[in-house]
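2024-03-11 09:14:02 DEBUG pipeline.ingest accepted 1 chain
2024-03-11 09:14:02 DEBUG pipeline.ingest length=139
2024-03-11 09:14:03 DEBUG pipeline.predict start
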Amino acid sequence: MTAAGAKALLNTLRLQGQLPFDWHPPNGYPDANAAWGNTNGLLNRWNFGLALGGNHIAGVTTDVDALTPGLKNPTATTLTDALGKRLLARGLTSADRGRVIQYVADGRPANAPIPATKIKTSVAGAIALLLDSPYFQWR
């Protein structure tokens, strides 16, 4: 990450109301839904997931290989499972997992390798879906 990337990330966190060390009371940021459940914060978090997944934050690059170690010739299923495990640290319900797999497959069989020309958009979309999902938004 570059200095410009660090500034961009801090600006994004500022827009979300989550700037590190910026909560003035000595008790830290609130740990309650009401403090975070507003449309502006949610929209900024969604936009952040899309930007991060698609490498659209200047000076910040998402290292897909680090997120999916050892994953060669990914399918929609293996990519979804690898990213879900890495980004969420818990499983998805089978219905939600199926929806993400269906999105990533983009009309192809879920267990067919993703074409090299589609891998970048498939990864970006899967990252955005997972980061913008209730699984990531809720604690």
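2024-03-11 09:14:41 DEBUG pipeline.report The longest helix spans residues 39-53.
2024-03-11 09:14:41 DEBUG pipeline.predict end
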